[in-house]
What does this fold into?
Amino acid sequence: MEKDALWEAVLVRLSEKISRMEFFTWFQKVRLKDVSGGAVLLSCPTEMNKNWLENKYYNILVSNFKAVSPEVEKLYFQVDLSLADSEVACPHIFAEKEKKSPRKMPNRPDEKIDEGLESRIIQQKFSLKNFIVGAENQFAHAACMAVSETSLKAPKKYNPLFIYGGVGLGKTHLLQGTANEIRHRNPNARVIYNTAERFMNEIIKSIREKKTEELRRRYRSVDVLILDDVQFFEGKERTQEELFNTFNDLFEFQKQIIFASDRPPSELLGISDRLRSRMGWGLSADIQIPNYETRLAIIQEKSKEMGLFLPVDVQEFIAANIRSNLRELENILNQILAEIEISKLSPTIQSVGKIFRKTHPNENFIASRDAKTGIVKNTDDIITAISDYFQVPATDLLGTGRKKEIVFARQISWLLCKEILRMSYEAIGKDFGGKNHTTIMHGIRKIQDLSRKDSATARHIHALKKDLGVK
Ligand code: ADP
Ligand code: MG
It folds into this structure.
């Protein structure tokens, strides 16, 4: 088969098998360079694209090649930078894909739910295995592991188990992961996971519909009862009473109970003494804010699960800037995915920095782990940032074109080279295509004047410095 036809046939098959986002991101500019014997050589527009195909898509690629052309045995990859600016290889496949599948933002994944669990809100994606363990959550994780092993056996080691910690530190992940693990070990176990709020609503509904007995029976027939966010019970006396009775029954029959809350039992002052003391009968384990290394590992795990490739410096940037609530992490990663889908470019500190600026307009960002040394090392870093920010090609910044926007962006680059890198006018002139030092000096003065008079210019400079990690 002729090589273009072969590649096209493979692309058509792939487009049916992987998500549209993946297909666009990783295959749009890949070309089949050569076929000979059983070997196929694919050219990729970037190093990252090549690594991605080699590491993540190798098997699916080979099997689809074989389906079209059985003699194909092995794939080789190379980088061809000129492909980055090339046309899409088979425009009609990509165009068709675009039409066929309605646009779906990645931040609403279809969540798989285990029907066997007595809850429609347990997500399969949470497991004890994909929970990253660091010093801050090690104890809570170990306790959940232990409980999932002994959940159906008596005597119980830790009953109830009480996990507590601030928002977005992984309590729900641990609880649902434990529920999944218990079900995995004992497929017939009756496990109820519920949030305190839903639990209360069920009680209210059962009272209204005169079905309280039914509800009681349901809760008291479980093997494991897991209640999340129990701080919500504060001040809800009727619900507390119901829970108190359920607790006593389950406890008496040695059924496992697990709670999570934002505070330890002793601080849940709106909960009756007798219930509060029972919550503290077993083992309490806290989760603290994860440190940098743990955050970095969580970012790696999450992005892997999402099929999102993040360069190491971007991972570090995110780890440095998401400090106390990991829920934001998922938001940020979803936005990065959405942007890749649109721009087809791999994420950079600059592009991710923009997302952070949008979502946290009033914060200063740390450019990298070591904010003192910063990430801006040379003129290239500044040119890349400016080119990204103003959406002008780097070659224009280095050139001599007189278009107003370009001159403006170019002069700002010089200013930043001067201020951040402390370069001399001569050195800047040399790096910007061999310009005279007086040209540079005048350009910088002009921008300095302008930024004093014009707040928009001042804002651009400020934002760029933030992107570049200097305040
Ligand atoms: P909480 O219930 O404590 O408010 P969540 O369990 O909802 O927090 O966690 C928020 C997000 O952070 C979830 O996406 C969760 O998967 C993730 N997360 C938190 N801690 C970890 C961890 N140690 N490993 C992996 N993901 C984590
Ligand atoms: Mg939670």
Observations:
- The first strand starts at residue 31 and ends at 36.
- The CA atoms of residues 8 and 90 lie 7 Å apart.
- The two ends are 58 Å apart (CA to CA).
